[in-house]
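ok, trying the design again with the full structure, not the truncated one.
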């Protein structure tokens, strides 16, 4: 039996060692979790011995993992239930055994009481009547020996019963401890399994939500692609129709061109042949005509050349003289142009300076004009005052002419004269200031 268990443990170790996935790197944070899931049968990997942890999980794989997880949970719960049932059966058997032992002890107690009663009776009577009615004598010595042996037997039975009672009580306490430990373990496992089931339920709900979102996304993409494909099909049908029309039109044009070429090519060939013959004849006639004209012109040139050699010499001499005069005139013109350019530069400088000075003077004149406007305003006020004084003087003169005496008239005239002199002097002062500003003085 030990050898069989050893072989089984070795085989399990080899299988678990060989079951490790070869594509999970050493030291990866999820390696232990994957191995744990592989040991309990939830994850099996691919046929090539790989886990492919970086690939996406399909809905089929999720359903397989959830089904295996639920099977594992149900199997664990069933095994725990089996163990609990076995423990309950063992406890019931122990309780029955204890009850039987209690009954046995109670029976032995009654037998001991009966034996003690018999001993007391035998101690009182040494003769007894048997079943046949005969009186028998009792050997007290033998009876005592029998009683002593019976007492030893009873003492041994009592000791054995005490040991059995102790062992039974110890086994009961041990079973109670084991049962409580198993109950605690079972409660912990139940809580852990319920937590795992709740976690798996949450994960399943999350995965279902993601799957629904993916389904919605796939449906939207499918609808969009369907609409795009329908639009492309319509565009393709339109293009095919237009291409068919254009192809028919092009084929019609090609047929017309072919018909035209078939009917017109012979005519064109005949016309080209006729034109080529006419062109050859014209070329020959033109060549003959040009040869005659060239010969006549050459003769005339030769005749005039001899007569005009002296005139050509005179013309060449006059041309050379004209060229010299033109050269001298060009040089003079260049010098004049240079002088004019220098003068123009000077004029530009003068214009620039004059414009700058003019701008400065204009700014000064603007300032002076502002001052003059102010002074004119003041002079206008003075003139108005003088006019007012003059009107006052006239009124005074009128009144004096009516009422005043000659002395009063002279005094009034003197005052009026001083007023007029004051107004005229103010006017002269304003004119002098204006002349200084304008540069008149």
């Amino acid at each position: 039996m030990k050898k069989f268990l050893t072989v089984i443990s070795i085989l399990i170790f080899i299988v678990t060692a060989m079951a490790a996935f070869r594509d999970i790197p050493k030291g990866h944070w999820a390696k232990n979790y994957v191995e744990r899931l592989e040991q309990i049968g939830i994850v099996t990997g691919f046929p090539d011995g790989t886990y492919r942890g970086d690939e996406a999980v399909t809905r089929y794989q999720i359903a397989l993992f959830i089904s295996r997880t639920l099977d594992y949970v149900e199997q664990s719960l069933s095994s725990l239930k089996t163990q609990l049932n076995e423990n309950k059966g063992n406890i019931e058997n122990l309780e029955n055994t204890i009850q039987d032992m209690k009954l046995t002890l109670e029976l032995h107690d009654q037998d001991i009481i009966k034996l003690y009663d018999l001993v007391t009776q035998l101690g009182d009577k040494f003769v007894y009547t048997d079943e046949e009615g005969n009186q028998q004598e009792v050997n007290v010595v033998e009876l005592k020996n029998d009683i002593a042996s019976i007492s030893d037997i009873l003492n041994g039975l009592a000791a054995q019963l005490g040991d059995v009672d102790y062992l039974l009580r110890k086994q009961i306490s041990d079973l109670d401890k084991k049962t409580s430990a198993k109950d605690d373990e079972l409660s912990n496992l139940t809580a852990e399994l319920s937590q795992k089931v709740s976690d798996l339920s949450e994960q399943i709900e999350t995965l279902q939500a993601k799957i629904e979102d993916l389904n919605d996304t796939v449906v939207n993409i499918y609808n969009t692609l369907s609409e795009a494909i329908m639009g492309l099909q319509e565009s393709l049908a339109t293009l095919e129709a237009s291409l068919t029309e254009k192809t028919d039109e092009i084929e019609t044009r090609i047929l017309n061109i072919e018909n035209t070429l078939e009917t017109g090519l012979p005519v064109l060939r005949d016309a080209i042949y006729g034109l080529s013959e006419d062109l050859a004849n014209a070329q020959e006639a033109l060549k003959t005509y040009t040869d005659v004209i060239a010969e006549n012109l050459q003769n005339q040139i030769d005749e005039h050349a001899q007569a005009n050699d002296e005139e050509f010499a005179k013309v060449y001499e006059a041309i050379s003289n004209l060229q010299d005069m033109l050269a001298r005139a060009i040089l003079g013109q260049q010098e004049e142009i240079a002088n004019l350019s220098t003068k123009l530069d000077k004029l530009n400088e003068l214009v620039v300076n004059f414009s700058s000075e003019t701008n400065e003077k204009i700014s000064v004149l603007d300032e002076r004009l502002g001052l003059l406007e102010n002074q004119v305003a003041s002079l206008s006020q003075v003139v108005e005052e003088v006019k007012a004084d003059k009107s006052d003087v006239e009124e005074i003169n009128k009144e004096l002419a009516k009422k005043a005496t000659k002395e009063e008239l002279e005094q009034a005239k003197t005052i009026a004269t001083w007023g007029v002199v004051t107004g005229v002097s103010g006017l002269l002062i304003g004119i002098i200031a204006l002349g200084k500003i304008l540069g008149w003085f």
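Keeping the full-length input from now on. Residues 206 and 297 are 113 Å apart (CA to CA).
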